[in-house]
């Protein structure tokens, strides 16, 4: 969705937004409620999937690297898309987003705020999700970044706090959904190794009511946790 809204830097596609509004209004006529998710899977076409972030933004974040260029450390681009999360290039790009390289948070906020401005008066919009299945940071340069609580404390939460504060300048009421690293909830909480790692709801430092307007969003992926035949045990 980000790519559709901001196809070029500082260029908002108003026609795209108008179509989104038309869809929202049509859904309202039929009593359908909507959650606006910033969907991504491995961030970019540069890493073998699709442009969850705009390609121009990804190009700003990526640095040409002869030694660690995509698909390193894999020998060839994987045929299974999720294995792209193992590539150095993809996790390094995620790191630059979380660390606000080249003003990354500003671009992220520009997209989120534009959506909030256009949808603030839509009664069937349940909320905005900051990012779908937030990718891991560069665990090759720091293995601790593979730990969900570490990622949340030092990378996700600072970025989320910033985004929520900015969104609330436009829309103070709509629910905001936020996610930990996906596999953080697969195992029981064990010290600093598992669990979400969030110490507070994003935005609570600037808005004491933030917790009442926030939703912890996560994926269970029950098929990963079961041990039998998934075709028999997975609910349809």
TrEMBL record:
One of its GO terms (molecular function) is hydrolase activity, hydrolyzing O-glycosyl compounds. The lineage of its organism: Eukaryota, Metazoa, Spiralia, Lophotrochozoa, Platyhelminthes. Residues 2-192 form the Glycoside hydrolase family domain. The keyword Nuclease does not apply. The keyword Transmembrane helix does not apply. Belongs to the glycosyl hydrolase 5 (cellulase A) family. One of its GO terms (biological process) is polysaccharide catabolic process. InterPro entries: GH (IPR017853), Glyco_hydro_5 (IPR001547), Glycosphingolipid_Hydrolases (IPR052066). It comes from the Eukaryota. Keywords: Glycosidase, Hydrolase. This is Glycoside hydrolase family 5 domain-containing protein. It holds the Pfam family Cellulase.
